[in-house]
Structures are given as C-alpha cells and as structure tokens.
Amino acid sequence: MDRHSIPHRRSGGGSVNAHLRKALALAAAGVPVLPLRAGKLPFGNCTRCAGNACGGRPTMKSAGTCTCASICHGWAAATTDTATLTSVLWAGYWQQAQAVAYHPGGARLTVLDLDDAGAVAWARQALPLTRIVPTTRGEHWIYLGAMRSANAVRPGVDIKSSMAYARWLGPGTGTMTALPDAVRALVLKEPPAVRSAPPVVTVTALAGSAVCRHRTPTYLDRGITMAEQQITEATSAVHATVYRTFLAVLSAHGRCGCLTRAHVGRLFAAARAKGEGPRHCTDAWTNALTRLGL
Fold first, then answer.
1. Which of 41, 160, 174, 230 has the largest count of CB atoms under 10 Å?
2. What pLDDT sits at residue 170?
C-alpha cells in the first residue's frame, strides 16, 4: 500500500482493538505510529520507563532525564514494525491508549496544525489546498514532503514533521499536494551574521565535559541522518537551512561531547552537496557554536 494513500479503514468494536487496528492499518501504509496515553502524551515504551517512571526522554514532546539505553520515547518510538506494535509490552499500552499518533516526517509528510479559525482562514488564503483533516478547534493540512518541525510559526500555526508526532484524527478529505515553499519559509529565516571564520572547512568534534545522560549512539545517529535529510531536501533558503540544522544538532549534542569528527563531517558533506561553499559551512558551524556559547 502506498504510504501516501493513508487508509480510510474504519474501526469497530472495543476501543483497545480499535486503536491497535488503526495503528496496524497505518503501519501497513508505511506510516510510523505510536500509542498516546491521557493528555495526548507518549508512553515510555520499554520496561524501565513504564508509566513514564523515568521522567521521559527530552524530545519535542516531552522533557525529563531518562537514561534508558533504547530509543523509547515520543516520536522516536513510532514504528511500522508489526511485531513491536503487537508485542506483550505494547499490549499494555494499547489497553491504556487514548489515541493513536504518527510520525509525519517518518512517512515523508508534513502536518500544518491550524489551531483556530483565524489560522484556517490564513491558510486558505495563502497556501495551496491539500489533504485536510478536521480537528477539535481547527484543521490539519497534510502535505507530501518532510521538513523541520516548529511551533508557533504564526499565530495558531504549528508545523509537525521531522522529530515530532501528530495525533491521527482520520483520513481527511482532498488530495495531498507537494509541500510548498511557503510552508518551508515559515521556519527558514536567514540567521543574522555572528562572525566570520577562515575559508577552510574545519571539521572538529566537540570535547564537551557534560555527561550525556539522555542520548544513545543509535539516537544520535538517527538525529544526524535526519539532519542530513533536512539539508538535502531544502529547496529554498539553503543557507538558513544549513545554519538552523547545525544549530539544532549542537543544541542537542554540543555540550556533552558525543559528536564525533565523522558526525560533523556528514553534516558538512550534506551542505556541500547542496552547493554550499567551504566558507559558508565553516561560518554556519561557527555561528551556531557562538550563539550557543560553545
């Protein structure tokens, strides 16, 4: 099944089976899913983190000090793996689940979350129509293509794509169209120049002294892969995309020393492949370091 043909399957029966059936249908369409507990919050999807006892992994949707060795929280737990979705551990989550969520970026989608009538009116005036899903207070507009997620890009407007999750509220109506530059531009603003660096690509790993209590090698590698993807998919404002991607990576890993020369080299290579020169790569990295005080 094409992942962009989000299933129109309706679930009947008890709520537990309905949530799981819905999740399995989405997973079959290539859409990574996860259960949500009360308050639209994710579970800690491993035995050590059951009941969110660890406080949650710091992601775009939760905060805490989890030291679990696996990727088990928020958007990072979203999966299309049937064995995981039907596992004994997850069976308990489906029993408590209040809703099903999905990782739009993992399905190469972007959800424009329009939270009120004013935001909906703006979108209908400024953006091309696409698949529309009604929400309690507004609408979700779903576009083909992934990008960086961001909250409050306009009054009542959030963007949910990479490293975020959105609640599944039904298949919606209309045909999904390509992610327009107008949506990307909501978060891709040119950063102010901070300082220049020599026109040399200096790929240096950070030697941070802080203890990395909330990241794992697998989590870091996934983050670098998504950062490369973010740069590679930029269709406009490439300079700003490179800078903001570097800034996001350094914000997460710049103080604990887990970034290696190989990780940074991958980011620089992705930027160079988009036509960025050696000087801009170095400037963007240096400016991000400066802004974060590293």
1. 160
2. 93
Rounded to the nearest 5°, which phi and psi values hold at 137? Answer: -115, -10
Beta bridge partners, 166, equal 102
What's this model's pTM, rounded to 2 decimal places? 0.58
Give the Cα separation of 223 and 68 in Å (integer): 17
Q: Among 69-83, 206-220, 249-263, which stretch is predicted with the lowest mean pLDDT?
A: 206-220
Angle, CA 83 vertex, CA 77 and CA 89 arms, to 5° = 65
DSSP assignments along 3-52, one per residue: TTS-------S-HHHHHHHHHHHHHHTT--EEEEETTTEE-B-SGGGGGG
For 69-131, the DSSP string reads SS--BGGGG-B--HHHHTSHHHHHHHHH-SEEEE-TGGGTEEEEEE-SHHHHHHHHHHS---E
pLDDT tens readout for residues 3-18: 455 554 443 444 557 9
Listed residue (193, 197, 203) closest to 243, CA to CA? 193
**Dist. CA 116–CA 225, nearest whole Å:** 34
